[in-house]
Structure formats: structure tokens, C-alpha cells
Amino acid sequence: MAFNDNVYKGKLLFVDKFQEQQQILEVCRRFNLQGEYRYYEQINSGHINTTYCVYYFRDGEIKDYILQRVNTYVFKDPYTVMDNISSVTEYIRAKIKATGISAKRFVLHYSTTETGEYYTLLPDGGFWRCCRYIDGSISPLDTNDLFLIEQSGRAFGEFQMYLADYPIEKLNIVIPHFHNTIRRYDALRKAVSEDVMRRAREAEALIQQYYALEDVATEPYRLQKQGVLPLRVTHNDTKTSNVLFDSHTHERLTVIDLDTVMPGLVAFDFGDAIRMAASTSPKEDERDLSKVKLDMEKFEAFTKGFVHEVKGAITQAEMDSLAMGALAMTTECGVRFLTDYLEGDKYFRIHYPEQNLARAMRHVVLAQDMLKRMDEMKDIVKKYSEEN
Ligand code: GN1
Ligand code: MG
């Protein structure tokens, strides 16, 4: 069916607060949320979906729920997204329960409607879902805290391990060719040649910097095609802000944002996390480029956590590909930001006009630094992979 997402070029059009509130209350009703409704607020961290936190009062406490209107411009078939998410979360829940501990705080719990669905469609075509907020959890937008960074490494490593024996062929490919770095470069070249916004000339130097990284950035993808690196169940959006931590101990609870769980490379999940977690400035669109470098302490913290979880379960070739994955994912994400900038900001939500350009500039500077320091990164991976 065709979705009417009230979107034009990926952005929500309506700003009518009354209409927004009516929709939210209707979604809460359909997911049968119990208690007394108090208020809601919009969460502005993601670039794709529209997210709200809704507060209810029940049994003397405030209960929070996360409501999301899925972006159907990006997720063309949102049913398959929810199918993946529900299967994967149930799988993890069963694994945790089998160890004798309560899974309540360690995996997401999506609500179902009266008819048992994990989604609901509103009359205007909006596709909505609802998830329980995990009590006592925090998810920092960006962080310089080494303990949190190490814990996020453990969370993403652990996630892969929970799903190591998940039947990969049962996963829906929700966005085909998602981490196909070669195609991402082809899309950039197309955007440059079409130049619909007349932005290519002023971005010329940046475009050339990206082209110069193409060979190294596409290496993990090529290794997968050659059969050197195996496909596994991967998360595919491994930023630190997609991890929930205990608000007191700061230990990891679980990873969130499971929209892009699909077959992928371990190096992609590791690398995509490093892109965000291991820069001297954690801001994705840092405009002071002198602040953008690979931060080896942060790199080490994440690597320590991640490798601790996956070593023994992944092959030597996969372990050897992790550092290259950091360069590949940083470059690929930058290529996507640049392509979107050239195409008129249709995909990633922006909060100011040149944000995608700023994101692309920050990513190329980080990727260039990673290239220079590749051996240092490899040594750190080696150190933790050999540690007992
Ligand atoms: C998008 O919306 P968010 O933040 O969950 C994107 C990721 C990018 C990320 C960059 C479906 O994720 O691939 O790495 O922005 N998600 C999709 O921050 O394209
Ligand atoms: Mg995401």
C-alpha cells in the first residue's frame, strides 16, 4: 500500500500541535497504554523517524513510553522492519531468560495492539509503533566518558553474540544495499553529475577528498563479496546514542534502534560505532575541524569492550578487518551526507541549512586521520584480541 507520511523529501510537513497531540493520544489508545495520560515531548536525536516520549501516571509512578512514527520514505516497507524487530527482540529475550535472569531491562519490549500487531496505521497513513521505556536508563547523545564508551562496545559486541546463531535467512532486507560502499560512491557520482541544487562546484574540494578514499573505504565490502568476510546478523546503526545505560552504574543495559538489523559485517558495526565514539569531538557535524581527530583513548575503550565480547566467536579475518571497518564506515557515512546535501537534503533530517555539508566535512577529516593511524588502530585491536 502507499503510505501518506505527510512527508515531502523525508521531512514531516505538519506542525500543527493540536493535530500532533490528537494523533499521539490515538496511538496510545490503540496500544492500550494504562494509567492517566500526563504529557508528551518530542525527542530530536534521530535523523529519520519522528520520536516522542509519552508520560503516563500509574500505581503512584510516572511510566514512560516511546512512540515513533516510522519514516516510510526511508523504510518503504515498515511491516518488514517491525517483523525483524519483533523476532530479534523475542530471540534475545528468550536467551537472556534462559540464563535465569529477568530480561526486563536488557532488551526492548514493543507493545502490541488489541489485534496483536506491533504497529498501527492512522487514517492519514502514518505508521506508528510503541515501546516501553526502560526504567532507570539513560542514553547520552554524545559522550567523552571512557567507561560509557567501553560499555557501548560491550553492548554492540554482546548484541551480535546474542544473535550469532539467529537464522540469518529469516531476516528481511529492509534497505537493500545498505552498507554497499561501492553503490554509495556510485550514488555520490550520480548526485555530482546531476547537481540538481547547483552545489557541486563549491563542494568540489570535498568531493575530491572523498574520491581519494574510495579504494580503502570499499575494501571491507569487496572482501565480503570475495567470501573472505562472512555475513552475520548486525545492527547497522551502532552509535553510542543507540545504547541504554543504567542511570546509576552507567553499565550497559541494551542497544536500541533496531530498524536496520540486517545481514552485515562485524567490521561495519564496529566501524560505524568508532565513527561516532572515537573522535576528539563527539559531534557528528562538528564545524571546528581542528577538533576532529581520531581519539586513541576512546578508540581503545570501545575496542576493549567490543573485542571482549566477540573474540573467540569471529574469524581472524574478521578481527583483522575491524580497523579498516572504522575507516570504511566513517567514509561511507560521509559520502551519504554529501550525496544528500547535493540532492537537496531529502534523506537525513537537518536542523540548519548546511548541516549535511558540515557532517560530510567532519567525516572526511576523521577518515583521513584514521587512514594515517591505521597501524595504531590495528595494534590496539590485536592487543585486545590476544588478551586472556
Ligand atoms: C541514520 O536516524 P538515525 O540516527 O537512527 C541512518 C544511519 C546513519 C545515521 C547517521 C536508516 O540513523 O544509517 O548512520 O543516521 N539510518 C538510516 O547518524 O539511514
Ligand atoms: Mg537508526
Compute the separation of the termini in Å: 53 Å
How helical, in percent, are the residues? 40-55%
- Taken as a percent bin, the fraction of beta residues is 5-15%
- The ordered H/E elements are EEHEEEHEEEHHHHHEEEEHHHHH
List ligands, each type once: 2-acetamido-2-deoxy-1-O-phosphono-alpha-D-glucopyranose, magnesium ion
Q: Look at the helices and sheets and give the structural class.
A: alpha+beta
* Cα-atom radius of gyration: 21 Å
Kindly report the average pLDDT value.
94
Subunit organisation of the chains: single chain
Major sheet: arrangement of strands = 3-4-5-7-6
What does the largest sheet look like? Answer: 5 strands, antiparallel
The 3D shape can be described as: globular
Strands, count: 12
What's the helix count?
Answer: 12
Low-confidence runs: 4-13
Description:
The chain is an alpha+beta fold and 388 residues long. It has twelve helices and twelve strands. It has helices at 17-30, 78-98, 146-162, 181-194, 204-212, 214-217, 219-225, 266-277, 296-310, 316-343, 355-372, 374-386; strands at 7-8, 11-12, 36-43, 50-58, 61-69, 120-121, 127-132, 137-138, 232-234, 243-246, 252-255, 262-264. A five-stranded antiparallel sheet has the order 3-4-5-7-6, with helices on one face. Helix 3 packs antiparallel against helix 8 (266-277), helix 9 runs parallel beside helix 12 and helix 10 (316-343) packs antiparallel against helix 11 (355-372). The chain is globular and about 55 Å long. The protein starts with 6 loop residues before the first strand and ends with a helix. Residues 4-13 have low confidence and may be disordered. Bound molecules: 2-acetamido-2-deoxy-1-O-phosphono-alpha-D-glucopyranose and magnesium ion (MG).
